[in-house]
Automatic annotation (TrEMBL):
TM segment ranges: 12-30, 36-52, 72-90, 148-168, 180-200, 206-224, 231-246, 252-267, 279-297, 403-422, 443-462, 468-489, 501-522
Highest rank taxon of the organism: Bacteria
Keyword Isomerase: no
This protein's UniProt keywords: Cell membrane, Glycosyltransferase, Membrane, Transferase, Transmembrane, Transmembrane helix
Coarse class of the protein's main subcellular location: membrane
Subcellular location: Cell membrane
Protein name as annotated: Glycosyltransferase RgtA/B/C/D-like domain-containing protein
Amino acid sequence: MRIRFRKISITSTLALILALAMIIGIVSNLIQPFDIKATCSVLIGCLVIWYLKPIYLKWVKGLSETAISRMLTVIFIAMMVIQLLVIHFLPASVYHDPFRVLVQAEQLSHGNLSWGDSLYFWRFPNNVSLTVLLSYWLKLTNLLQMDTYWGIHLLSLILLDLFIFAILRSVRRLSHQHGAALLAAVFFLISPFAYTYYLQVFYSDLPTLLCLAIVFNVLIGWSSFHRTKKIVAGIGLVLSVIIGEVVKPNLIVLLVAVALVGIWLLIRNRQQLKVIKTPLILIVLGFVLAVPTAAGLKSASHFKNNNQYAFPTAHWIWMSYNPQTKGKYSFSDVQTLSSIQGKQAKQAYLKKALPERLAQLGPLGIVWRWIEKASILLNVSFMPDAYSGGYIAAPKLYQKFELPLSAMGMIVMRIGFALLYAETFFRCLRLWQRRFKSTDDPRIMLTILTALGYIAFHTLLWETESRYGQVMIPLLGILCAIPSLALESERRVRPRTKTEGWLTLGALAVTIAVFVASSPLYSPKGHYVAEQQSQLSLQFDAKKTHICPYDTLSQQVKLNHQARHFSVSLAPAAEFSGTLINEQTHQHYELKRTFNALTLERTLPEGMYRIRLRNDLQRSQSVLITKTISYRLAPYPLEIDQHKHPYWSFVYTFSR
């Protein structure tokens, strides 16, 4: 008796794996960070949106194409107005890698091709291409008489809004429904997505998002393009892949996905391969050209690798399995490797250290680490604060409402992504249900495989951060817009049944009761009132500023809200006396010395203050000062013996 096996679609199998990942993402956004009131708020939002979905879809179905277009235009314009207000009134203090990239790019744009101001680029050369490309943009904005601040933020604004436009366009074009595009537009308008990290901190994540959005827009629409449009789209596709790969090398995940899909179709369905053969070849061409492009950018900027300081690639893997962390960046691991001289010696150390860590975790520990890393990757709670210490000096009116607005923004982000993951989960289940009937659509297969590639890369191999998971947006957005995967509730709009209504009401009642009984959603303690935290970091041997004997440094700071803690950073061995002066009352507060800062703990009312440091020794001392060429770090200049430096600043914080 012959047993006949039914053929299962490979796309359906991949979709089932993605569905399991989406469960982790949903749970993560519901409970992390652990706060009962926040979790209840997210649940309430999800329940209300789920119950009102049929009503919303019925209302949207009655709107004309013209009405939808007008609504989307109004939303987009309103979003852009808010973005410009944020850039002008709410400048953020950028720190860590994006700031180092910014300072080096600014330096290159003014003709200084030295890379020795810190060890950062010798240690992590992956950001060299991004820095050089940014310097070319700054050269252009310099010609237009823009300072670095507006030059950087103009680029962020253009790339961010192009990405949002591409997402809305692809969702509307694919779904053939008004509801999905309008809902996505409202999310971008009311959530922090368009106003915080991507707008205020320029880094490699935003170009990668835009690159993927362009790539999959071209892939989905290729068969419907006429000859001229195919030529233009093909050029754009190649350029997008080149820029995306040189800016963020982990885009190689897309190349692996393209190769796997191409091989599968070559073996199983050559007819389907012909449909997307040209864009797949263009994607591969983009990756091939990215290699000489990256080398050319390094050569043009006179950058040379230095193996004395370079870290082996394996250190990211080793870091991700640190038993003391959850798979995120570990400063202690960086310090350990920094103490070992030479790249080969570091590699020899990691060859022993990595297996030891894996053995220490054990099989169950490794699996649990994968779950932890996936939950961080797919969580969006900390996205608005990525690489930013907060606002330099937010206006008084905004600071009155800043804490509740930040808390609400975080909840909206979590609701939005929990619903996106839930929608993707059900669509993937729909693919699995059709596993014996459906044929493999290469576009859907490539989308799912690319998403799984990113999840696997940061879960199994690399260290993880929530910002890395944002590459899911264009990929999951496409899956949720494809009509053939639409849920029954979208195909046939029907109101919720009485049973569903009572169950929803009961769940809401319980959740609201827990919400009311739980502790406050946010605490004002520790929140910044005014700050400037940008610096090149002593860990990378940043150049220090030498201050002559008995010289005095000072800087004004305006507090738009009462503060209770003040700190100004120093080099660890520096011996400076410090005073904080209230310029309204002329009251002087002596600062207390800690290991690497001068601090003050007391209530500081609103008003104008002056930070004053003095070198009391008979020899020169170095002090921690941040310098740029034309990027304003703080509202007021740093003064050294009455000489003003408008683009220099202390590293300081005032907090509630």
